[in-house]
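Could you help me review a protein record that somebody else here produced? Do not assume that whoever made the record got everything right. The record follows directly below this note.
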Amino acid sequence: MLKHTIILITLSILVILLTSYTSYAQDGMIWLLAAHDWVANALTNIFSGGQAGNLIREMLALLCIPVAIGLIPAILYWAIKRHWFPYFMEVVWVVWLIQVGALLVIAKTAPIVS
């Protein structure tokens, strides 16, 4: 419990300090969403335009970016230590949560077309 509290306080301080550098955070979000859009558009050529095809395409686009970003430190760690990166899934989950949060904010602010 103490360990989680210290991590939570540390991350809160980090977020507060990074708010003064919002341009970096915004740039990161823009890159993350641009990569998601690129993957989704690339998968459009593979999957049909039906409801099932769109669902599979969006799911793969949502999963590809966090796994690819998580593989970067995993490959570097493997190259140095010669065994698997122990926090691979944690990195994937964090990137996935950030990506989903950004996509939800974009979807919420987008005008609804009826």
